[in-house]
Amino acid sequence: MNTPSEKEFFELPVAAVAATVRLRGPKVCVLPFDGTRRWFRLEHTQRDDYMQASLRQSIRIFRMLFDHGIETVIAPMFSEDLRDRGDRYIARAIDGLVLLTNHVEVLSLYKEHDVRVHFYGDYRRTLASTARGQAVASLFDDVTVATSSNAEHRLFFGVCGSDATEAVARFSIAWHETHGRTPTRREIVEGYYGEYIEKADIFIGFERFNAYDFPLLNSGKTSLYFGVAPSYYMTETALRSILYDHIYLRPLPKPDYSAMSDDQLGVLRDRYRAQRDRVVGVGCVHDGLWFAEG
After folding, report:
1. Residue 144 and residue 171: Cα distance in Å, rounded?
2. What is the pTM of this model?
């Protein structure tokens, strides 16, 4: 199969890109929405509703991912460290989580794209101390059951899913008590996420180069990408750049250095020597905000 140029790939219709993605991957994409409050402050007036505006952007991006052929999306929504922002923030966050279970536009996404929904993380224990914790967990269960027959796409929302260590320990003890043996990796993943998921193919983050909130699924083969703008600014151009790199560029085998000519080695040497001081992941600070450099 011939490799298209990046320009040719960008000019393909969405359906053609989706066919390529379904054939060659990626299958599992992790995308935590980050920098959302910053995006809202820059793009909306104070009269606008943050939850509604954020929800519309989340739906837009989910549709874009599914339309481009990605089968499974893992979307960390609420990290445990966000509890440090106080009770008022948690209450607003719970309002947003509830919208994932009953908002008409979200339910339309699940139906139109045939999406099976799960919620993962230690939310039952973490939210138990809040007034609506149990009710929210029940809503999560309801939408999981309601979408269980959908088969084309999967969407896993992470709620307090930063560290699976204790959850896996509890699951393993209970499993051993029931089955008389330790669970397999597949059974552990199924127990934590609700069904089995392969290792993540790509992670799309924002700003600082940290990959987080998809326990058990990270690997040395997960391609990491980080946008310079907050997640809700994500465009089709950015997504296609990621897909092109993941499908066509990263899988290329390394050359046989012993077979390279002196000229080729010289070009490679000059490139590396010219960039000895450059480190991807180093940033700078403007107005109190960190930005990637280089």
Report:
1. 20
2. 0.93
Q: What pLDDT band is residue 167 in, cutting at 50, 70 and 90? A: very high
Closest CA to 14 of 63, 53, 54, 69: 69
110 catalytically annotated: no
How far is the C-alpha of 82 from the C-alpha of 230, rounded, in Å? 18
Pair 75, 33: CB distance under 8 Å: yes
4 within a domain of the structure (yes/no): no
Q: Are 132 and 172 in contact (CB under 8 A)?
A: no
pLDDT in tens, 207-240: 889 999 999 999 999 999 999 999 999 999 999 9
* Residue 185 resides in a domain: yes
Number of domains within the chain? 1
In the residue annotation, 50 being an active-site residue is answered as yes
Which one of the listed residues 24, 38, 125, 132 is annotated catalytic?
Answer: 38
- Domain around 217: 12-256
Q: What is the CATH number of the domain that holds 178?
A: 3.40.1180.10
For residue 274, what pLDDT band results from cuts at 50, 70 and 90? Answer: very high
Establish whether 263 is a catalytic residue. no
Residue 247's SS3 state is: helix
Is residue 289 situated within a structural domain? no
Catalytic residue among 56, 63, 89, 92: 89
Is the confidence at residue 126, as pLDDT, over 90?
A: no
| Average pLDDT value for residue range 70-86 | 84
Q: Is 34 a catalytic residue?
A: yes
> Which two tokens mark 102?
């009953």
Q: DSSP H helical segments within 74-224, as ranges?
A: 87-102, 104-112, 123-126, 133-146, 165-179, 185-193
Q: Which one of the listed residues 24, 50, 83, 163 is annotated catalytic?
A: 50
252 within a domain of the structure (yes/no) = yes
